[in-house]
Design goal:
Elements (H helix, E strand, L loop, with lengths): L1 E7 L5 H10 L4 E3 L14 H10 L2 E5 L14 E6 L2 H10 L9 H13 L1 H7 L2 E4 L4 H13 L3
Parallel strand pairs: 1-3, 1-4, 2-3, 4-5
Helix pairs in contact: 1-6, 3-4
């Protein structure tokens, strides 16, 4: 039984890594999509409760204000991080998510790196460099799930 939360700033690669883990056969939930977030940007707590109650093995990604309420339900909280310049370059060129395209949103990301990422770091059980190749990052997270780390 292993539940993993993958968190980090916009552009760090959470969706890309979850896509790879899903391709490998793992149950994954990217909370940036499919209505997991309420209009205020927090997780739908009832829905997250149901997900975690129904699935002993799941890899979830997201970064929201109320995620800490669920940390005790995850065996691992993995923080992905990368330098701000890398994050900005990635959000500017990605096609699957419009967030980060405007100067205001990029400034918001820069602010979050200073204010939110330190909070995420304190709650994380593992920190991974988001600049590593996707396959390596997926391998590291998969090892947590399979118990081979």
């Amino acid at each position: 039984m292993t539940r993993v939360l993958v968190t980090g700033m916009s552009g760090v690669g959470k969706t890309t890594i979850l896509d790879e883990l899903g391709r490998r056969g793992h149950l994954t939930v990217d909370t940036d999509y499919d209505g997991w977030e309420l209009p205020d940007g927090t997780w739908d707590e009832r829905r997250m409760d149901r997900l975690l109650a129904q699935h002993a093995d799941v890899i979830v990604s997201g970064t929201v204000e109320n995620q800490g309420r669920f940390y005790d339900r995850f065996e691992h909280v993995v923080l992905l991080s990368a330098p701000l310049a890398v994050l900005i370059e990635r959000v500017c060129r990605r096609a699957n998510n419009p967030y980060g395209k405007t100067p205001e949103q990029r400034a918001e990301i820069a602010g979050y790196v200073q204010t939110v990422e330190p909070l995420l770091r304190r709650g994380a059980t593992l920190h991974l460099d988001g600049q590593r190749p996707v396959a390596e990052l997926a391998d590291a997270i998969e090892a947590l799930v399979t118990g081979t780390s």
